[in-house]
Amino acid sequence: MATKTFAGNIIEVNDEGYLISMGDWNEVVGKGLAEEEGIELTDLHFKVLEFMRNKVSNGETLTIRSVGKSGIIDIKQFYVLFPGGPLKKASKIAGIAKPSSCV
Q1: Quick check: is 84 catalytic?
Q2: Which candidate in 20, 41, 97, 102 is catalytic?
């Protein structure tokens, strides 16, 4: 396992950069992971990330469609906020496991 450090927060990640433990996530870690993806997080990003983390915590499966039906953003906005693979990038930044639908 590899580790990353963001503002003193040392976290373990897998070979693809996803957090090993969802509990290691906080806003500082999220901002650091987003910066690595070339994304500057806004309040809207954090609302989406919180939605995703809550869904996963409740044992639900995430899809682009489910995020688009969140009432926070639509699918088009999801692609704008997290360009180049929104579900994959947003999951990594949210500190959750890579969705099985992502290759």
Answers
A1: no
A2: 102
The 8 Å CB, 24+ separation contacts for 24-33 are 24/95, 25/53, 25/94, 25/95, 29/95, 30/93, 30/94, 30/95, 31/6, 32/4, 32/6, 32/7, 33/4, 33/6, 33/92, 33/93, 33/95
Helix axes of 86-94 and 43-57: crossing angle, nearest 10 degrees: 80
Phi, psi of 59 (to 5 degrees): 80, 15
- The DSSP letter of residue 9 is E
DSSP characters over 56-67: HHTTPPP-HHHH
- Which pLDDT score, from 0 to 100, does residue 7 have? 85
Asked if the model's pLDDT at residue 103 lies above 80, the reply is: no
- Give yes or no for residue 71 having a pLDDT over 80: yes
Read off φ and ψ for residue 57, nearest 5 degrees.
Answer: -60, -30
Q: Would the pTM count as exceeding 0.70?
A: yes
